[in-house]
């Protein structure tokens, strides 16, 4: 059944961010003041739809990353042998890693919230707490993909996050690059990119009676539409949506 123009326009609107903002603030405060984490260098930032401004109504969960900066996980395969040796002179072995950090984050959150353990994230869905929308917290440690290590001051790398799923499988993601690329794409398309992403997300939810949502998660939709050439977006919202749909079908 074709989607009406007004429906496309309504679906392009961003969901109210007031409640996700409150949830983000409460969780950040809890982690910032956790005694088990107070002597660690931890960066806390949002990822996913809320961070990317592509959140839609009835889909406003907060995805938060608690990232341990040091120690780190590294990929040094591009470095020369002398560079690898120099790297390990500066960054030696440690007995505190992702597993220990995740446990400390989990224990810290349990002091203030009812939490559950998902396949990758720590889930908080208790609406009797201070939170106003569900939240997923990903404990991760910094990952670096090195391209050069002439010295500690001159090291060159791409930064990502490292974690493991429930089966112990190692996963590396690059949420900061995903956020930056989405913002750049939105600027280059005059603000149409994120509008169209929200339309597709709503259309996916509308079709979930026939399509399993897990087969088309939000992240995949954003990546899929990122590949559509910019000129297909530079028109009216209705035409931009249809252009993208036709381009993907072809």
Polypeptide structure, described:
The protein has 9 helices and 7 strands; from the N terminus they run ααβαβααβββββαααα. The model has no long low-confidence stretch (mean pLDDT 86). With 250 residues, the chain is α+β, with helices and mostly antiparallel strands.
Kindly provide the radius of gyration, computed on alpha-carbon positions and rounded to a whole number of angstroms.
Answer: 21 Å
Helix content: 40-55%
Shape: globular
| Discrete helix count | 9
Q: How far is the N terminus from the C terminus?
A: 19 Å
Give the class from helix and strand content and strand pairing.
Answer: alpha+beta
The ordered string of helix (H) and strand (E) elements is: HHEHEHHEEEEEHHHH
Beta-strand segment tally: 7
Largest sheet: 7 strands, mixed
Mean pLDDT: 86
Low-confidence stretches: none
Percent of residues in beta strands? 15-25%
Which descriptors apply to this entry?
250 residues; alpha+beta; 7-stranded mixed β-sheet; 40% helix; globular; 9 helices
List the topology elements.
Elements: H1 5-11, H2 18-32, E1 42-47, H3 48-52, E2 62-75, H4 81-90, H5 98-110, E3 116-117, E4 122-124, E5 135-148, E6 156-164, E7 170-173, H6 175-188, H7 192-206, H8 218-226, H9 237-249
Parallel strand pairs: 2-5
Antiparallel strand pairs: 1-2, 3-4, 4-5, 5-6, 6-7
What can be said about this structure in brief?
The chain has helices spanning 5-11, 18-32, 48-52, 81-90, 98-110, 175-188, 192-206, 218-226, 237-249, and strands at 42-47, 62-75, 116-117, 122-124, 135-148, 156-164, 170-173. It is of the alpha+beta class and 250 residues long.
């Amino acid at each position: 059944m074709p989607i009406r123009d007004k429906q496309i326009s309504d679906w392009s609107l961003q969901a109210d961010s007031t409640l996700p903002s409150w949830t983000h603030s409460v969780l950040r405060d809890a982690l910032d003041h956790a005694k088990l984490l107070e002597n660690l260098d931890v960066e806390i930032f949002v990822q996913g739809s809320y961070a990317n401004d592509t959140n839609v109504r009835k889909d406003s969960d907060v995805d938060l990353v608690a990232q341990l900066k040091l120690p780190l996980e590294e990929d040094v395969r591009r470095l020369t042998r002398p560079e690898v040796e120099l790297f390990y002179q500066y960054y030696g072995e440690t007995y505190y890693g992702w597993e220990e950090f995740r446990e400390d984050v989990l224990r810290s959150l349990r002091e203030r919230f009812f939490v559950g353990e998902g396949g990758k994230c720590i889930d908080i869905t208790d609406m009797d707490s201070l939170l106003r929308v569900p939240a997923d917290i990903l404990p991760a440690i910094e990952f670096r993909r090195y391209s050069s290590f002439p010295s500690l001051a001159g090291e060159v790398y791409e930064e990502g996050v490292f974690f493991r799923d429930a089966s112990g499988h190692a996963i590396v993601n690059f949420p900061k690059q995903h956020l930056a690329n989405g913002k750049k794409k939105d600027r280059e398309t005059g603000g149409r990119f994120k509008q169209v992403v929200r339309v597709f997300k709503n259309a996916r939810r509308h079709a979930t009676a026939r399509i399993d949502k897990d087969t088309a998660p939000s992240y995949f939709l954003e990546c899929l539409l990122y590949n559509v050439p910019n000129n297909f977006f530079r028109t009216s919202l209705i035409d931009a949506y249809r252009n993208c749909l036709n381009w993907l079908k072809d």
